[in-house]
Amino acid sequence: MGRVRRMLNRRVVIGVLLAGVLAVGAGVVWFQPWKLWVDTTVREAAPVAAEAGSRAPRTLAVGELISHEHTTTGKVRVLELPDGTRTLRVENLDTSNGPDVKVLLSDAPVKEGRAGWHVFDDGAHRSLGSLKGNKGDQNYALPAGLDLERYGSVSIWCDRFDVSFGAAKLTRV
To answer: Which residues form the DM13 domain (predicted)?
Structure first.
C-alpha cells in the first residue's frame, strides 16, 4: 500500500510540474515579455511629391498622442500628396514595444486614463497595419476613398490584449 501511494504521489508531482512548465511556456509565447526590453526605432522620411516642382504635401489633420496603458508620446499628422494619396505620419513616437501592436483609425473619442484604454475597436475602426517600431518616425498609407470624417482618432493598439498604449484626437486643419 505504501509503495502504491508513493508511485501515485510521484505521478501527481510529475503531472503538476509538467502542467506548470507548459503554463509558463504558453505565458511566455502569449505575453512575449522580452519585448519590454527591446526597442525598435524607425526613421522614415516624410512623404514628398513624386515630381520635381510639385507642391509639398498638405496637412489635413494633426494630433498629440496621450498615454493609456503604456507611456506614449509623439505627434500624428494626416498628409495629402499632390497626387491625392494620403498618409498617416507618426512623428517622435516613444511607446512600449509589445505583441501584435497596430495603428488604428477609430471613431472613438480620446479619453484620458483607464476610460480610454479599451474603446478604439468598439465602433468603426480601420487598422493601418502593424506598428513598424515603438520609437521614431513612420508613415502609414491611408486607403483610397477612406472617409476621414468618420475617424476622429488614432490609437497605438495592442490587438493581443485589446488595449490602447496611447491615442491622439485628430483635429482638422
So the answer is: 58-171
